[in-house]
User: What shape does this take?
Amino acid sequence: MTGDAREPRPRRLPTWTTRRWLRVGVAASLVILSVLGITGAWVLERTQSISNNLTDVRSPSLSTAFRLETALVNQETGIRGYGLTGIPDFLRPYRQGLVDQKAYMQSLEDLLHQDRARLKDLDAVRDAVDRWHERIARPIAAEPPGAPPALATQRVAEGKATFDDIRAALKRQQEMLRADRVQGRADLQSTATLRNWVFGTIALLLLVLAALVFEGLRRGINRPLDQLGADARAIAAGDFDHPITPTGPADLRHLSSEIDRMRRRLVRELAFTEEARLRLDAQAADLQRSNAELEQFAYVASHDLQEPLRKVSSFTQLLQRRYGSQLDERADQYIDFAVDGANRMQTLISDLLNFSRVGRVHNAHESIDLSAVLDDTLSALSVAIEETGATITHDPLPTLVADSSQMAMLWQNLIGNSVKFHRPGEAPSIHIGAAPEGGLWRFTVTDNGIGIPAEYAEKVFVIFQRLHTKDAYSGSGIGLAMCKKIVDFHGGTIAVDPEYRGGTRMSFTLAPEPPQSPGLTTLPEATRPDAEHLNDRGREQRA
Assistant: This one.
């Protein structure tokens, strides 16, 4: 390379942002539009002013001047006839002409109040009329009727000369008014031509401005956004190595650079995510195996816990029957306590096992008729219903995709609670309602029982939470917690209706089809241990 050779300078990119371009463009457009609007408004106002002056002043003034001339001619005719004959009827046109003259004079003054030259012409006419009235009209009209007035004969020449002055003044006034009207029409025509040119220019400038705005938007915004969109679509299609080329104003280039940095970060994140996904898959497999083992352990634990309780209860009752005559009353009471505690522990273990199985063992979704499930539940509760004299009604119930055993547990717990917690001395009255609501089904179980205080509306759904002692009402405190778990598993919600005051109203929703729950594990029947296997596993765990 020679010493004079120079390296090419890099092209300097514009530093204006889209907002700055838009502000400058909008400001320039507003200035141009304001100038055009002011010019157009001035032309329209000028055209309207000339048109109003022509139609409201010039033309009415000229026509009124002609009417004034007619009124004066009528006066002159009447005075001349009366002067020749002395007949009073000739004075009627004169008197009517006076009235018309006064009205037309006043009208011309009102129309020409801003035009001094035309008012001067009107004053000249008025002066000539006043002289004629003073010298000719009023003296002759004052002469007595019956004979021709002598004054009319004496002032014939003067009357003619005076009225000729009136005609001359009227002619001069009418010529000036006619010239003003012609000039007004010419001004209106020239202003209309100017208006057409101005609005034509405005339309042309608006078209040019629209074209400039469109082209500026296309080059400064649309084209860079199209390029950015094409690059983004290429990346979205899976080509994460495709670079994003910054184009357009400074802020769009900055946005493109930010998106490209995000693309590079996504490439790194995807590599990390893929590694994490593989680890999660391995952990999910381990968790699934652990869930299956926990389910088997639940079977073993339930059997191993219940078997000793059954032995305690059986041998305690056997002890009471065999040696009851040798024991005192306090010993019998202790034996009753032991048997009751063992039975309640068995019930609690059974309820806990059922609670843990919701969504695991009981997970056979199929289309079931809730009315048929309800009938089976009422049959299972028939003894309690008959003892309390309960009346149970229900609306037509739908057919849903659900687990039949869970639905049976749901009905049994809700209806069983309504039967159990009835008011003393009053037969339970229970109604089951069902209605569609926003893609779900809303069910209500309403009774006339003792009710649930509002402050415990949430607490009753917590496991082992009881509002009454076991002496007042039996139970383990798991029923409503199990209902909530069943309803949640089927994609719904359950709550106590706080607005109902006549007892208790449980309201819950169910989806036509329960949501997918991949995290739940169902233990197949083939893998569920039988009693003998449970005993073996239990002995192994105890060893």
